[in-house]
Amino acid sequence: MRQIPTEEAVGQVLCHDMTQIVTDPDKPRFKGPRFKKGHVVREEDVPVLLSMGKRSLYVLELEPGQLHENDAAERLAALIEGPGVRRKNDAPSEGKIDLVADVDGCLLVDGERLVAVNSVDDVMIATRQGNIAIKAGDDVAGTRVIPLVVGEDVLEKAEAAAGDEPLLTVRPFALKRAAIMATGSEVATGLIEDRFTPVIAKKLETYGIETVMTAQPGDDADALVACLHGMRDSGDVDLIVCTGGMSVDPDDNTPGAIKASGARVVTYGAPVLPGAMMLMGYYEGVFGPSDPRTAPGLPVVGLPGCAMYNDATVFDLVLPRIAAGVELTKRDFVTLGEGGLCLRCPTCTYPHCPFGK
């Protein structure tokens, strides 16, 4: 830190806040920081500083190999920006850069690499929870370094920890057309109204997925398989959702029918309440009209009855990824166990709650 004449301070970094007091009756009264610590003095700042009585300034001299917080934030932001993610502010604000979603979609965060970057002293990247639905313009991340000045070697360590791929992406919602198969002889015979299909159709609609095919084939295993084959082979749908018949009761044939119809089952069961009996699978090599072909094939989901009665279930935790065409694995379901217990609040606030987080 050294003291220099204000006229010679252009391009230098201020070491502390510069307070301005305005008492002129012809101007709004003001007292507060006019220039923040870390501000880089510009030519147009000089007359303002002089009017504040600042004939000399204490400025920060960067040694070789040191970076100002703004320059460091630029390099950290570059680790975050990826497809569907852009900067919110053109230039750093007080050493911080915010990033927002550029499209509607599913926010994907590489958590392991994020931890590796944040394990480097003096840097930080904060993000939204991954695997959630995001609207274009929503905040997704913010980054800065902790000190005003940081060694370039610190940034090099962070960059090495991040690797070559962006830490964040927003995958646009891609699936557009769905089929819903509602099981149960009581539904097929008209003894009770099918209340499951409207609930799921409305949920899918929030992700831009239109329900274009519905069926009520009853409980017979062969009828369920035939119905699934018809939906799979129609070429008209990007997703098949099966409702009901998912428990271990002898007459609940939906899981067996999904497997018998040729689907590769990723999981039958998830460490989530409500929704433990969910099934997730794929008809490999079969693609619907809108399927982005990022997953191995046409997704098929089996939903237990709780999905009709509860505002949020395991289906809500994975639907953003399904809608974006992200392939789901067994591990994706296993890791839902931490945070997978819904507290059944009187007023559901999902996704703004600990459920699934």
Automatic annotation (TrEMBL):
Catalyzed reactions: adenylyl-molybdopterin + molybdate = Mo-molybdopterin + AMP + H(+)
Cofactor(s) recorded in Swiss-Prot or TrEMBL: Mg(2+)
Signal peptide: none
Known pathway: Cofactor biosynthesis; molybdopterin biosynthesis
Residue ranges of every copy of the MoaB/Mog domain listed in the record: 179-324
Keywords recorded for this protein, A-Z: Magnesium, Metal-binding, Molybdenum, Molybdenum cofactor biosynthesis, Transferase
InterPro entries xref list: MoaB/Mog-like_dom_sf, MoaB/Mog_dom, MoeA-like
Top-level taxon: Bacteria
Protein name: Molybdopterin molybdenumtransferase
Alphabetized Pfam families for the sequence: MoCF_biosynth
Family designation: Belongs to the MoeA family.
Function: Catalyzes the insertion of molybdate into adenylated molybdopterin with the concomitant release of AMP.
EC number in record: 2.10.1.1
